Amino acid sequence: MTRRPKPAPKNPPPQAEGARNDTCRLYLITPASLTDDFPDHLAAALDAGDVAALQLRLKDADDDTWRRAIDRLRPIVQSRNVAFLLNDRPDLVLATGCDGAHVGQTDLPARDARALIPGLTLGVTCHDSRDLAMQAGEDGADYVAFGAFFPTATKDAPTQADLSILSWWSELMELPCVAIGGITPVNCAPLVTAGANFLAVVAAVWSHPDGPAAGVSAMNRAIADAPPPIRPET
Prior knowledge:
By secondary structure, this protein is of the alpha/beta class. Helix content is 34%, strand content 15%. It has an 8-stranded parallel beta barrel with strand order 1-2-3-4-5-6-7-8, surrounded by 5 helices. Helix 1 (38-47) runs parallel beside helix 9.
């Protein structure tokens, strides 16, 4: 059965000023715990280079904690023309003025999440599965996320993805794909060349020895220096 390419997303993360690579961009995910000075670190990171989106991830947090974090962080992110997305909580997006949500395979089904945030960005974790990615596209996802590509201590990764899934997806589909899992400036080049549209990182930025701003700068340099994808001739 021949799959037709999905249409381009209605709501991709907004383009930031000074983007350094037109085929792949940085996608930040917040660390496991947010310190009192995290808003300052976040502002410095976003001011250090091109970032397409920030995903707020708060595992096992109650609604009040979510809302307080959103109130503190959303203005910092959106004022810099960066998309502000919520992990696993599409139900809070509209009420809090966020730009969209990301759901996993054990969270609210993508089709139901899509109904909660019409016209806003929806991303779906697809691990290393082509079938899950196809289904996510059918269910209304604006991007699909594959991984983990490298060992990561951020969260338990149930699968290890191969570069071939990025190449396959980018050659057949217009829907953007995100690579995730243990990505650093040292190992990211093959992901860019394979066709990843976004690189999702946590530790490479927030645990950078010289601070988050240096982490963003290092990731942007590595993305810009990576060989671009080789697109098949049509």
